[in-house]
UniProtKB/TrEMBL annotation:
This is Pyridoxine 5'-phosphate synthase. One of its GO terms (biological process) is pyridoxine biosynthetic process. The record marks 152 as: Transition state stabilizer. 1-deoxy-D-xylulose 5-phosphate binds at residues 45, 50, 101. 3-amino-2-oxopropyl phosphate binds at residues 7, 18, 192, 214-215. It catalyses: 3-amino-2-oxopropyl phosphate + 1-deoxy-D-xylulose 5-phosphate = pyridoxine 5'-phosphate + phosphate + 2 H2O + H(+). Homooctamer; tetramer of dimers. The lineage of its organism: Bacteria, Pseudomonadati, Bacteroidota, Sphingobacteriia, Sphingobacteriales. Its main location: cytoplasm. It comes from Hufsiella arboris. GO terms for molecular function: pyridoxine 5'-phosphate synthase activity. Catalyzes the complicated ring closure reaction between the two acyclic compounds 1-deoxy-D-xylulose-5-phosphate (DXP) and 3-amino-2-oxopropyl phosphate (1-amino-acetone-3-phosphate or AAP) to form pyridoxine 5'-phosphate (PNP) and inorganic phosphate.
């Protein structure tokens, strides 16, 4: 079974736009769980433009499903935040400063030594580690040498190619997933997954443990409502 982790960054974006507490991020997280989501994902960024560091402390107290914190571990404040909150999973993303959103995976060959060190730090604290990678077999192979528990495949390229040629778009992900399986790495995926492209991805990528979805899911909820939207995403995963 593939778990659905709802990324609630966009709820925080909306809340922050007026400075108050509407929508209430905590309530939305709890409602996502009530409506069947098996996890909650947040991606605090240094400028706190959506998720604030305090949100992480507040969420940790109330969440019952899997808490996944994504972010840039080269920021000491991020490392401290994760170690203080001990989520079920931390996903390390190599964000550059000022990025609008995440747009690449780790170069696991170049940053192998750094990754080994930081991954061990989180694992010593009892936190499962996943690292964000592009669907390139060499990057998956080098990821395995870092000691990470899982990788998260960056799915933007799949999402943008899906409507043009879905067989071609998914091919590198299938190869990357096979390599991960062979090397004993758990497999997550995310970025720009949506109601159109999710089912085909889940059907064709072997060993997919978890997807984290935010932007499209929250946008769909404007039309369908949060409960129905989460139900629709779960349906795509449980084909
Ligand atoms: C790692 C990933 O693909 C997503 O978490 C993405 O980074 C979402 O972040 P934003 O909501 O800031 O775009
Ligand atoms: N890790 C991916 C994620 O959390 C959500 O990405 P998106 O659905 O907002 O593109």
């Amino acid at each position: 079974m593939t778990k659905l982790s709802v990324n609630i960054n966009k709820i925080a974006t909306l809340r922050n736009s007026r400075g108050g507490n509407n929508p209430d991020l905590i309530k939305v997280a709890l409602d996502c769980e009530r409506f069947g989501a098996q996890g909650i994902t947040v991606h605090p960024r240094p400028d706190e433009r959506h998720i604030r560091y305090q949100d992480v402390y507040d969420l940790k107290k109330v969440i019952h499903t899997e808490f996944n914190i994504e972010g840039n571990s080269t920021e000491p404040r991020f490392v401290e935040l994760v170690l203080n909150n001990k989520p079920a999973q931390v996903t390390l993303v190599p964000d550059a400063e000022g990025q609008i959103t995440s747009n690449h995976g780790w170069n696991t060959i170049k940053h192998q030594e750094y990754l080994k060190e930081i991954i061990e730090k989180f694992q010593d604290a009892g936190i499962r580690v996943s690292i964000f990678v592009d669907p390139i077999v060499e990057m998956v192979e080098a990821a395995a040498t870092t000691g990470t528990d899982r990788i998260e495949l960056y799915t933007e390229a799949y999402a943008s190619g899906y409507h043009h040629n879905k067989e071609m778009a998914i091919a590198p992900y299938v190869e990357a997933a096979k390599a991960a399986k062979k090397l004993g790495l758990g497999l997550n995926a995310g970025h720009d997954l949506d109601l159109d492209n999710l089912k085909y991805f889940a059907q064709n990528v072997p060993g997919l443990l978890e997807v984290s979805i935010g932007h499209a899911l929250i946008s769909d909820a404007l039309y369908l409502g949060l409960e129905k939207t989460i139900g629709e995403y779960l349906e795509r995963l449980n084909f």
